[in-house]
Write a structure and sequence with these properties.
It holds the Pfam family DcuA_DcuB. Its main location: membrane. It is found in: Cell inner membrane. The longest helix is centred in the C-terminal third of the chain and has 41 residues, at 302-342. This protein has helices at 2-23, 26-41, 52-70, 73-86, 92-107, 117-126, 132-145, 153-162, 171-193, 204-212, 233-254, 272-290, 302-342, 345-358, 361-375, 379-389, 400-408, 426-447. The radius of gyration is 22 Å and the shape is globular. The chain starts with a helix and ends with a helix. It has 449 residues and is mainly alpha-helical. The chain has one domain (1-448). Helix content is 68%, strand content 0%.
């Protein structure tokens, strides 16, 4: 009977996740909350703990980053990234993805990529490089970036899950595994991606467009294409203040002795959760005072809207999984734990598949990481696999950045396909995921704890 109830309740959880995926957006959170209602009122389970810490981190980060965007800070960051890419046009298949990755890490969002897409296209095509190569890998690289950013919603969820007893795994314990793993993964993936697809000279579709006059031949475009952004002094200061906030979070994560002490007879440095929240509020306030964005415009910012949707989805789904695992943690630990001990890659596959289905790294984190914790996976190993699996959000051609990349590619080399697996992002997604998971697992075992 216990197994029957477990399977029935698991089906409720999975069913709500599937229905939430079909609804997308805030529907993920609503279905998560509905699943909690079913588990509590129908099966008599005790409600799990809502993910309060993760939600508060997300809200504070979204507020600060929205202030930065309103002041023009993201536009300034885009202009800097465009200059970096333009300095190395011949190596654009590596430089563009790395630049997109690093700026997404700093900003905590992949939205920074959109204005860079026409720059990547123009520079690659003008230098005779098939645009689909740097475009596809740049898009996918922003997915794994959120496993390395101190201010992403996915990292907020991961910290809230692991920065407590008995694990006490802090921000820098995660980043010291995920950041180098992702960088090495992008480098390895670029070696494969630069060989995908036909060269421009050998592609009959591109050559036909050139012959018909619909497309200018590579090297013939004389004008310099810049990111379509407006750079202002206020935007520069907003971005600098925000990035200094990110740096402060990293410093406090590295040196716990710098943090204030908590209360009690044996006071210990306070955890990183309140540190992140405090620094983001201070950064947002400084941006408001120095860059003077219109505060009334904050709710209209794309970062704010996306962040609020993520928070709602995080609330419902994390609450649902906490309620289910709170009742069955021993069964999960005994049953799945042995399976994961034999084949740890099953955890990575779980995160990857949830990313594919929900296109949300924070949802995948809250759905699968608690299962990994209950199964006893070493946290270093878990962090490495977690980062690489984030590439899964681009396995299907349904993301806005994928559609935008295809639209900006006037040569037509970047395709969305018609059969779900024949698009330009499919192989780069698999290659980057496998490379980062493999490297991350190694780093996690060596020094991840």
């Amino acid at each position: 009977m216990d197994i029957f109830l477990f399977i029935t309740q698991l089906l409720v959880v999975l069913g709500c996740i599937v229905m939430g995926t079909r609804s997308s957006g805030v529907g993920l959170g609503l279905w998560g909350g509905t699943g909690v209602a079913i588990l509590v009122f129908v099966f008599g389970l005790a409600p799990g703990a809502p993910p309060v810490d993760a939600l508060l981190i997300v809200l504070s980060v979204v507020l600060a980053s929205s202030m930065m965007q309103a002041a023009g800070g993201i536009d300034w960051m885009v202009s800097i990234a465009a200059k970096v890419i333009a300095k190395n046009p011949k190596q654009i298949t590596l430089i563009a993805p790395l630049t997109a990755f690093l700026f997404s890490v700093g900003a905590g969002t992949s939205n920074i990529l959109y204005p860079l897409l026409p720059v990547i296209y123009d520079l690659s095509y003008r230098n005779g490089i098939r645009p689909s190569r740097p475009l596809s890998l740049s898009v996918v690289a922003t997915g794994v970036a959120l496993a390395c950013s101190p201010v992403s919603a996915a990292m907020a969820a991961m910290i809230a899950l692991t920065d407590t007893a008995p694990w006490n795994f802090e921000l820098m314990d995660i980043i010291k595994v995920t950041l180098p793993a992702a960088i090495v993964g992008i480098f390895l993936a670029s070696l494969f991606v630069r060989r995908l697809g036909k060269d421009i000279a050998d592609d009959p579709e591109i050559q036909a467009k050139i012959a018909s006059g619909k497309l200018v031949a590579p090297g013939a475009t004389a004008t310099e294409v810049k990111a379509e952004v407006t750079v202002t002094k206020e935007g520069r200061w907003a971005a600098i203040i925000f990035l200094l906030g990110v740096l402060a979070i990293v410093v406090f994560g590295l040196f716990s002795g710098l943090r204030p002490l908590g209360a009690g007879d044996d006071p210990q440095p306070i955890g990183m959760t309140p540190i992140i929240e405090i620094i983001m509020f201070v950064a947002g306030t400084l941006i408001m005072l120095v860059a003077k964005p219109k505060v009334a415009d904050i709710p209209t910012m794309t970062v704010f809207r996306a962040g609020m949707v993520s928070a709602i989805a995080l609330f419902g789904l994390a609450w649902l999984t906490n309620t289910f695992l709170g009742e069955h943690s021993k069964l999960v630990a005994d049953g799945i734990g042995g399976l994961v001990d034999t084949a740890p890659w099953i955890f990575a596959l779980g995160v990857f598949l949830v990313c594919v289905l929900t296109t949300s790294q924070s949802t995948a984190t809250n759905s699968i990481v608690p299962i990994g914790l209950a199964a006893g996976i070493p946290l270093g190993l878990m962090s490495g696999m977690w980062a690489g699996a984030f590439a899964g959000i681009y396995l299907l051609p349904t993301n806005g950045s994928q559609i935008a990349a295809a639209n900006f590619d006037e040569s037509g080399s970047t395709k969305l396909g018609t059969k779900l697996v024949d698009h330009s992002f499919f192989l780069p997604t698999l290659i980057l995921a496998v490379a980062t998971i493999a490297v991350g697992s190694l780093f996690g075992v060596l020094w991840g704890g």
